[in-house]
Amino acid sequence: ISWLLFASLFCQSSSRTRTAECLIILSEAGDTSKKHCTMGGKVLIFLLLQVATQLCLSENVVTPYQSEPFWLDDAANEENADLVDWSRHPCRRACKDDEPPMECHYSFHIEQYYAMSKACYDCPYNRTDCFRPHCIPADGVHRPLVVVNRQMPGPSVEVCEGDTVVVDVTNMMHADSTTVHWHGQHMRASPYMDGTPMVSQCPILPGDTFRYTFVAETPGTHFWHSHVGFQRGDGMFGPMVVRRQPKRDQLRNLYDYDEHYMVISDWDHEMGLDKFLAHYHGSGDNKPPNLLINGFGRFTELTERDGVAGLMPTAVFDVKPNAKHRFRIMNAEFLNCPIEVSVDNHTIWVVSSDGRDLEPVEAKSLVTYAGERFDFIVETNQNVSNYWIRFRGLLDCGPAFTKAYQVAILRYEGAPDEDPEEDVAYDLPPMEAMNMQINALNKGTETKEILSIPNLEALDKDDAANTREPDYQFYISYDFYAKDNADFHRKDLYGFHQVRQKVGTPQLNHISMKMPSFPLMSQTELIDSSAFCNASTVEGCETDYCTCPHVLQVKLNSVVELVLVDEGLPYDANHPFHLHGHDFRVVAMERLAKNVTLEDVKRADREGRIQRKLDRAPIKDTVTVPDGGYTVIRFVADNPGYWLFHCHIEFHSEVGMSLVFKIGEHEDFAPVPQGFPRCNNYKPNPMSYPPKSTSSRNKNTVADPSENEINHVDEKVRSSIANWLPLILSELRAASSTGFALMGSPAMIAASLLLVNGLVFAF
Question: Which part of the chain is the Plastocyanin-like domain (predicted)?
């Protein structure tokens, strides 16, 4: 009985992939009871067996918070994920030394939604209405959204290093597919969980649920976001923080509180797809008019009503006086809009970037690009009051275009609930006052008064990436090219030089990435490597438009150096590049001129004019390149698989500004999870149909392999029951004639027999 109870609990707490193992345990329990149990034990175990088997087959997900006061309403089930206060998740805790890891379950429901919906009631005139469940106020402008659990940002995933994260993502959108990428997590043991469509997985179709399961092994500040289309720009993103145990936290003595994160998003007032189509096929722009901080912001003041100003709420960060507070910035932007961040009357100490710790550096401001993360510490040593935290957009959000900016409030404990007195405008404070700046726009190591990324020093020890000579060196140049890209400039119809609305094509080494029709990681048997391309296998791409699966292959555990070259034509842009599955050392960065050629950079390298700073080079997974300059990065290719490398500006990556690294050979890859979704083109030639048949045995069906295994084990359980059930029934009849004490009265005997027979019928 103890064995069976254990099996029941094991089954109830297991995922579908372990159901077959559960059923085997149960069938063995049944066989054991037949051999060793008394008559009463056999009856009891038979009844328990039916219940346990149904638990095994029910696919229920038991989450660690179901027994705790975690849900906001009484319906504690997955369908109410949008009513959960995810900030109270038990995995969001103070990490302790030698504490065993937890398994952390989340439910993400993806759906199209609306900003300033009826859920917002009288927001902003009744300020509390702006914080009602399901109210997404944004900047007060009505527009469609794509969000998780009717929140923006979506649920925060805050765990400790080593925890297992389990997220059930259900696509509730009407027609669009989706995935979730866990930006900053390397997925070393679970590469199929990276969330990159057609690289690590098939897109999640409407109505489907995909379970992401991975160990949070990369500590630090990260975030999650959609990796399909422009959904990140429509609101599908959220914070992710992986904290370390105190003895492993190199920064622990530098701060008193670690409570605040800032998710920055550039914000438009139309869907990302609509903006993309208008820009690439018409005369629409690609400039975001506004910014949001943690989903809040102001754009224009709404009409005053009954003496109440129509001011939208801003993000507020409550702090204690005379303390050191750690802030975590996550840049979830999707357009070309670097952000300058500063705090009135305070300096900041930058201590980490992209989850990797740095020697602390004092600054007045920092600049962050799409996909980057920075941690900084603010010492609250000013008078008790409210202070503006300022966010100023650059490039496409800069003085020449939309002048997008936003503010949040640093509120000391004891300060009134009101805005700071200082004025707010794009030009405040003056840009020239930002002379102590980190990661400045279009600056490299050539500018001594500015700290560019290579000037920062990692706290992590040197490794093979900066102590070994590279096994591979790839020069990757890029820009916007005047080409007849068939997607936007159909030659002889509306070619690039035939129309007024010209759109340049951003490419890496003059190649546009074309994704395959199936995931490279999970369906390797379909790969035709001759279809792969790179700069060494194709010709004529400098003038012609080339598109193909752009793949660079390297050996496992090799050291790879990338020299990224921004040619600087035809206009100023900064492209932040993100590498999946790895991080890298940033060893050089410089702006040479307003524009530069690949040959200029190669010549400078041959002549020894590109100085690589190897000692304690900072570690990142997202980095920018100065316009008309270069950035040099190095990484150890120690994570086998196919990994995307791409510009993190969505309008650029969606038109092919990316490539894939193949690291190692297919036999080095982790095994594909059982029953993992598959997809591909369907183009039979000639079209054929199976012959009609009246027999159900002859029908062609496509079955999930995991279902077949469960059905097979299911038969084993049935067979086991069939073998020992007659014995139980005969002994029950005998017991009824002698008034068997265990069974009680004749009515009880009859009820027991009916129950047994009913369970058998149901089973």
Answer: 135-245, 259-415, 538-665
Does a structural domain hold residue 694? Answer: no
Q: Which structural domain, as residue segments, surrounds residue 587?
A: 464-668
CATH number of the domain enclosing 334 = 2.60.40.420
For residue 83, being part of any structural domain is answered with: yes
Q: Are residues 408 and 490 in the same domain?
A: no
Question: CA 747 to CA 755: how far, in whole Å?
Answer: 12
Residues 177 and 314 in one domain: yes
Which among 667, 636, 663 has a CA at the least distance from the CA of 553? 663
482 and 434 fall within a common domain: no
The domain total for the chain is: 3
Q: Is the peptide bond before 153 cis (omega within 30 degrees of 0)?
A: yes
Residue 446 lies in a domain: no
Query: 51-87: per-residue pLDDT in tens?
Result: 555 544 443 333 333 334 344 443 344 668 888 888 8
Q: Rounded distance, CA 520 to CA 553, Å?
A: 13
- pLDDT score for 38: 63
616 is written with which tokens?
């304690």
Do 477 and 349 lie in a common domain?
Answer: no
Clarify whether residues 275 and 193 are in a common domain. yes
| 16 located within any domain | yes
Cα distance between residue 187 and residue 581, in whole Å: 6
Query: Residues in the chain with pLDDT < 50?
Result: 10-21, 23-24, 55-77, 696-714, 716-717, 736-763
Query: Over the stretch 146-194, which tens digit does the pLDDT of each residue have?
Result: 999 999 999 999 999 999 999 999 999 999 999 999 999 999 999 999 9
* 3-state DSSP assignment of residue 536: coil
Instruction: Identify the sign of the CA torsion 541, 544, 547, 548.
Output: negative
Q: Are 403 and 261 within one domain?
A: yes
Amino acid at 496: F
CA atoms within 13 A on the CB side of 218: 25
Q: Are 159 and 91 in contact (CB under 8 A)?
A: yes
Is there a single domain that holds both residue 496 and residue 378?
no
What's the CA gap between 506 and 634, in Å, rounded? 23
- For the residues of 716-732, what is the DSSP string, one character each? HHHHHHHHHHHHHHHHH
Name the maximum alpha-carbon separation found in the chain: 103
Alpha carbon distance 366, 231 (integer Å)? 27
- Do 236 and 377 lie in one domain? The reply is yes
The residue type found at 272 is G
Q: Is the pTM higher than 0.70?
A: yes
